[in-house]
Amino acid sequence: MRTAMETQPQQDAESDSALPTTPCSVVWSRGHAYVLEGFRARWVGRDDRGRPHAITGAEMQRRGWTFTRTA
Predict the structure, then answer these.
(1) Which residue ranges are recorded for the region named Disordered (predicted)?
(2) What are the tens digits of pLDDT across the range 10-37?
């Protein structure tokens, strides 16, 4: 028999923590992968149309992020 904790999805604790600071770190936000560009300290990825998209760490925190891709 499963307990309530086992049947309910766990909150993503990673999104409450600080963003990685290692260059080339990869995180996911809103279904898109972003890579930390070390020399400019910005997160670079692609938008829904495949165009390059760059955001700041503060914006990434506001949007929410994880280390794993979520559906």
Answers:
(1) 1-22
(2) 444 444 588 998 889 999 999 999 999 9
pTM exceeds cut of 0.85: no
Count of helix runs (H) and strand runs (E) in the chain: 2, 4
**The two structure tokens encoding residue 56:** 């700041």
Amino acid in position 39 = F
User: Would you state the structure tokens that stand for residue 71, as one six-digit string?
Assistant: 């559906």
Helix (H, G, I), strand (E, B) or coil at 12: coil
The DSSP bridge pattern shows strands 32-37 and 26-29 to be: antiparallel
Beta strands 42-46 and 32-37: pairing type? antiparallel
Q: Where are the beta strands (DSSP E) in 24-68?
A: 26-29, 32-37, 42-46, 52-55
Cα torsion 36, 40, 42, 48: sign: negative
